[in-house]
Design brief:
288 residues; alpha+beta; 6 helices; globular
């Protein structure tokens, strides 16, 4: 089939960065921003496996798509990284507009952050990942490869003792005159060196479940699900709408989703090994 292609137009980058010769390049701290007029990705023809979404977005069953055209315009990004007491912190922001074939997304905004990533330990992980043994794993001696994997595992465990946290602080979309948004946070708190001792079965399920936390929420218009799942073919619309309504009714009855006017909302949190959706505990406590 035909090859895909990528077009990039008018890229401008700015930044103010502090270099420390004692740290690798990826530990530069400071502020950077990027402006990009357009980024277009055109894929070759594909043969999708999805058969339950609207046919003009992803054709049903094995009908091939001539191409998928994904275009981003007016892309602006910003990132700030700091190093405090040996811990990396970062906040990043992206805003753009998008078009996927004939579907327009008037606004995409993404804010992410991570906190308390121990720089020295993170260095060990990256050095192991990019070591000759890992990059040429098929040609490496089994003993050397095992040592690097052991180093990575130990370093990953040590990272957790510094209470790292990762967040999608906001993902917001405007499409068809409607808005949707989501956010979540995941992190660890209180992991101690004792939890990492061999005698404590390092990173046991109990320690991970009871010393990790997560929370998040999502809000989307019902119309977006209809756009994806209801076919334009009039002969299929009633069936598709009934199927979607049955799915939503079941999710609402089971407490996973709340319908508020034209919006569907859900929130979750996990703490001390208990996972809740809309304040309702789901399943047994984790790690027990």
């Amino acid at each position: 089939g035909s090859a895909g292609k990528i077009n990039i137009e008018a890229l401008r980058m700015r930044g103010e960065t502090a270099f420390d010769q004692s740290n690798p390049l990826w530990f530069t701290v400071g502020h950077s921003s990027t402006e990009l007029k357009s980024f277009v990705l055109i894929s070759p023809a594909i043969k999708p496996m999805l058969g339950s979404v609207r046919s003009d977005i992803v054709p049903r069953r094995n009908t091939p798509i001539d191409s998928v055209n994904i275009a981003f315009s007016n892309i602006n990004t910003e990132s700030k990284t700091s190093l405090e007491n040996g811990l990396l912190n970062n906040a990043s922001h992206l805003q753009t507009q998008a078009k996927v074939n004939e579907t327009h997304i008037q606004r995409v905004q993404l804010k992410t952050s991570f906190k308390r990533f121990h720089a020295a330990t993170y260095t060990q992980i990256l050095e192991a990942v990019f070591s000759p043994e890992m990059l040429c794993a098929s040609a490496s001696a089994p003993e050397a490869l095992a040592r690097q994997r052991q180093t990575m595992t130990a370093a990953l465990a040590l990272l957790l003792t510094h209470n790292p946290e990762f967040s999608i602080d906001a993902l917001e979309l405007d499409m068809d005159g409607l808005s949707g948004k989501m956010a979540y946070t995941f992190g660890f708190e209180g992991i101690t060196p004792d939890d990492l001792k061999p005698s404590a079965e390092a990173l046991s399920n109990t320690a991970l479940a009871h010393k990790s936390y997560a929370n998040g929420h999502i809000e989307i218009p019902t119309a977006w699900l209809e756009k994806i799942m209801v076919d334009k073919d009039p002969t299929r619309q009633a069936q598709d709408k009934a199927m979607l309504e049955a799915m939503l009714t079941q999710a609402i009855d089971e407490g996973y989703v709340k319908r508020e006017g034209k919006l569907l909302r859900s929130q979750f949190n996990m703490k001390h090994g208990v996972f809740k959706v809309n304040d309702k505990a789901i399943g047994p406590s984790l790690g027990l």
